[in-house]
Amino acid sequence: MKSLIKKIFVAVTITAAITGCKSNSTSQEGKVLNIACWNEEFKTRFTDNFVAKGLLPEDVKINWIMTPNENTVYQSKLDELLVQQMDLPNDERLDIFLVEADYALKYADTPYTLDVIQEIGLTEDDLKNQYPYTKEMMTDHEGKLKGVSWQACPGGFIYRRSIAKDVFGYDEPEEVQKQLKNWVLFDNTAGLCKEKGYYMLAGYDDAFRVFSDNAECPFVTDNKLTIPSTIKDWVSQTKIYTEKGYNHHANLFSDESARDAGKDGKVFGYFGPAWYIDYFLAPASLQFPKAERTIGNGSYGDWAFCAGPKPFNWGGTWICAASGTDNKKLIREIMYTLTCKKDVMAAIAKEAGDFTNNAEAMKEVAESDYKNPFLGGQNHIKVFLKNAQALTKKHACPYDQGLCEKLQESFSPFFAGDVTEDDAWNHFFAEVEEMYPNLEHTF
Which phi and psi (to 5°) does residue 247 adopt? Predict the structure, then answer.
């Protein structure tokens, strides 16, 4: 089963089945809460801020359905579960499932997700402090909100303080930002880093999300594939950076990229949002992973954060209620607690360094004495706050994850000098035709 997309837009019988189920359901809540996700992040947020606070009814059992997210494996599993949803007993049906930004619309615009306002019970007042673009990402074509997130994911540039001092003579974020505030200055800094024996970026994909998130059009409109000009700009810049030695030829999340963030790494910085720092950079910085995360353990603490050349958003995780659930009241409490409560949003930001989806909470943290130890004591929420305020609705489409992954995969050999640019484009389009045979393209 390659994709749910073909099924959901012809799912008249499935929609009818769901509707029929609703009319026959009772108000009694279920005793098993089935949650589908791909890693421990939501489980941790849920456990620490809901279960540990005594908010989970004692007679409810949590069943975690964990499936890796790489290469759309999680989506394939989720598609299978949702298609068979209405044929299962109540306690075996999905109640909650998580989705990411790259494929959020694939599930939002279907009958498999419940309206969180009309069917789950959140109110506009509950949601008032959430960033508008996080709601737009999960709003279907009828204007129904189909999921909510505890995250907002504005990104910026995370750089090594010691390298900044060597290159510029200073490492303060406000001053370093002046050298990175547009692409011309960013390129100039890349040249300065090269002269000092450093790399500006770890590899080929590091800047991809800055370009893709600022695209002037969606990848797909009316089943027609279009390559935004910003993607072509990414290809051009990355080839130049590779040829000039401005990057270290690594791939995103690779072992090579991780080593470049370590004690002896020569990479100046990485693009990313808060989750990227917590998930990838902070662990990669440690010389002794099992030891305390503190200054002196590898490059931990030798980092800072600034806005970079362009505001962008990368990622985000949304909580969706599955049609057919018998736990609507509990789901409402989970969604409210984990995405609407100001104190919870502020606590997650301070404890995990995450930028959460509550403008008032983030303003409060930005103005507090909060210090991020990985970033040398910087309150990076202040910078994230400015970038979040600059973000607007993006040109998202249901195919984003597959297309972004295939673009990066197809062009890696081109950047390495193993194939021509035409070869890379031809490989990409061949992959697209295999994954999404319904799409048309011209290039």
Answer: -125, 170
* pLDDT reported for residue 92: 95
Expressed in angstroms, the distance from the first to the final Cα of the chain is 29
* CB of 100 closer than 8 Å to CB of 316: yes
Residue 389 binned pLDDT confidence (cut-offs 50, 70, 90): confident
Token output for 30: 């279920």
Question: How open is the CA angle 357-348-334, to the nearest 5 degrees?
Answer: 70
Q: How far is CA 183 from the centre of its chain?
A: 23
Number of C-beta neighbours around residue 335 at 10 A: 24
Among 141, 195, 139, smallest CA distance to 163 is for 195
Q: What percent of the chain has pLDDT over 90?
A: 84
Place of tokens 């029929």: 20
Please indicate whether residue 389 or residue 137 has the higher confidence score (pLDDT): 137
Distance CA 376, CA 218 (A): 38
Q: What does the pLDDT average to over 326-353?
A: 96
Strand blocks (E) in 154-209: 156-160, 201-203
The greatest distance separating any two alpha carbons of the chain, rounded to the nearest whole angstrom, comes to 71
Residue 2 exposed, middle or buried by CB count within 10 Å (0-12, 13-18, 19+): middle
370 Cβ contact list (under 8 Å, min separation 6): 349, 350, 379, 381
Instruction: Determine the pLDDT at residue 277.
Output: 94
Residue 10 has pLDDT above 60, yes or no: no
Task: Count, in order, helices (H) and strands (E) of the chain.
Answer: 20, 12
pTM of the model: 0.88
Q: Which two three-digit tokens encode residue 254?
A: 């690779």
Q: The tokens of 431 are what?
A: 């992959």
Closest listed residue to residue 362, CA positions, set 380, 377, 335 = 380
In this structure, of 9-23, 157-171, 274-288, 348-362, the range with the lowest mean pLDDT score is 9-23
**Strand pairing partners for 317?**
100
Residue 109's closest CA among 4, 223, 258?
Answer: 4
Instruction: Report the C-alpha gap between 361 and 152 in whole angstroms.
Output: 12
Cross-strand partners of 250: 203
Q: How far is CA 332 from CA 84, 107, 115, 133, 428, in A?
A: 24, 19, 11, 21, 42
pLDDT at 1 over 50: no
